Amino acid sequence: MSAAPLALPAANEAAFARRWAAGVRGLQRTADGRRLKVVFPGVPGGGSGPDFRDAMVDIGGDLLRGEIELHLRASGWRAHGHQRDPAYAGVVLHVVERNDGAGLSTNHESGRSIALLVLPPEPGQAPFPPPFIPPCALRTAQGLDAGPILGRLGLRRLRTKAARLRPLAERIGEGPALYAVLLEYVASPANRPAFAQLAARLPLTALIDRCGGAPDHGRVVAAELRGAAAALSLGRAGSRPMADPRRRLEAAAALLARLWPAGSAPVWPLALAAGADLLGALTVPGAGRSLAIELAANAVLPCALASAAWSEAAVEAAFASLPSPGAYGLLKPLGGWLSEGGQKPFSGAQRLQGGLLLHTEYCARGACGRCPMSE
Ligand code: SF4
To answer: Which residue's alpha carbon is at the smallest distance from atom 4 of ligand 1?
Structure first.
């Protein structure tokens, strides 16, 4: 009889985060005993703020959407001062490998009690990066062109986003759905849940009603957005100047005033009609071209596909022509392996999105030998 595999703790928080990103299956229980199901683990939060954003978890029958923070030990929350940091007020679940305290939940000084999930190390957990040269590096060195595979995976990611947005577009209409998702993605990762709440507090129809065709439309839009955002908890700690929530709010106002000018109806904007200059329409003062590309890839094109505002062919053509918004640190190892043959694997937004899917669904799950790059 062979010995059972050792349950080793994750080497560091990065490994623990990869385990979370790969998905936690089945029914779990929070430390205080409530049933928990992970609907969507979220997307990595980037440099500052909580580890994952836009996650969805079902806790005791309540569907919660927000941020996830991970630590190897539950005491990491206080050790890092998160209880005082407004950037962590939107955390809906604190995930730890070990609960080294007496508490059954995690507290924030805003008064919120955050559910705590203990995920002990799994036996035989697959490591990433793999402790060997992965098949994708060998295959690209032998001449495999990774680009078309990444492009196909990028399209799959776009379709998945569109499928998630479809119920919203059907319920509130294509214009209001686009408005909501644009507002969410104009925020820095740490503030996306708050900006999503902003869209719920000030829906597009209400904004248009309040502007009422005023000649200083742009200023009225900015004032309405600031007013609606006043009661929200927006994270500022550690934000780069470009990610400052006030700056993003001004950029959002400029963008919304351009897309829905004075006197327009709450419908799909003319400036974003199929075939229009997408990046020209989405680039506004205070937000650079990278943000315009992110908005196109994560908000406009998925929403255009979900609502049938554009034909599928028009969405695919626009996606294929979108430039890359820049490198993601998360994809650095994968980018290195896929460059073995001298290629530039993430040469456009579609391929970069494909890289994100490849990383999440295969690399981070230790699926070398079974992934589309090694088939
Ligand atoms: S899962 Fe595939 S793409 Fe990812 S490292 Fe392994 S072989 Fe490369």
So the answer is: 363
Helix (H) or strand (E) holding 149: helix 146-172
Q: Residue holding tokens 């992970």?
A: 38
Q: How far is the CA of 163 from the centre of ligand 1 (A)?
A: 26
Domain extents in the chain: 13-118, 146-321
Tokens of 167: 């119920």
Query: Ligand 1 atom 8: the closest Cα is on which residue?
Result: 136
Other Cβ atoms within 10 Å of 187 Cβ, number: 23
Tens digits of per-residue pLDDT, 67-122? 999 998 898 899 888 999 889 999 999 999 888 887 888 999 888 899 999 987 76
For CA atoms 137, 142, 148, 149, the dihedral sign is negative
The pLDDT tens digits of the residues spanning 218-234 come to 999 999 999 999 887 77
More confident residue, 182 or 245: 182
CB-based pocket (< 6 A), ligand 1 = 134-136, 337, 358, 362-363, 367-368, 371, 373-374
Tens digits of residue pLDDT in 291-325: 999 999 999 999 999 999 999 999 999 999 999 99
Query: How is residue 4 written in tokens?
Result: 């059972």
**Pocket residue to mutate for ligand 1, from 330, 371, 375, most atoms within 8 A of Cβ:** 371
What is the Cα–Cα distance from 51 to 45, expressed in whole angstroms? 5
Atom of ligand 1 nearest to the CA of 374: 7
Hey, is 245 helix, strand or coil? helix
Return the beta strands (E) in 74-223 as ranges: 91-98, 105-107, 113-118
- Ligand 1 atom closest to the Cα of residue 334 is 5
Tens digit of each residue's pLDDT (9 = 90 or more) over 121-148: 765 555 566 656 788 988 898 889 999 9
